[in-house]
Design goal:
Blueprint (H helix, E strand, L loop, with lengths): L5 E3 H6 L1 H11 L3 E5 L2 E6 L2 H25 L6 H19 L1
Length: 95
């Protein structure tokens, strides 16, 4: 993160339109410092949606990794066999 990506709440208040336009055109979030501490992040909606999507995917990957580590897995062959069994049961019931 570069120094221009960090601004104070006062800078935001004084230069609101310029800050908004910069965030919207650069797709670079701004960290807002309030009472001497990082307090908020200002980012455009598309960047936010992308971050939320990535976070959701990472959480699913972590759940899958835990399943693998715990041995809760099914082989490709097991899945194919089960699907074939279900399909043959469906065709027999229809026949």
């Amino acid at each position: 993160m570069e120094i221009q990506d960090i601004i104070t709440a006062e800078q935001l208040r004084q230069d609101q339109q310029e800050v908004f336009e910069d965030v919207l055109t650069s797709n670079t979030p701004k960290v807002i410092i309030y009472v001497g501490e990082p307090a908020l992040v200002l980012m455009n909606a598309e960047t936010y949606r992308t971050q939320i999507t990535r976070l959701a995917l990472l959480e699913k990957i972590m759940v899958g990794q835990k399943d693998i580590e715990a041995g809760r897995v099914v082989t490709h062959e097991q899945i194919i066999a089960e699907l074939q069994q279900r399909l043959s049961g469906t065709t027999e019931a229809q026949g």
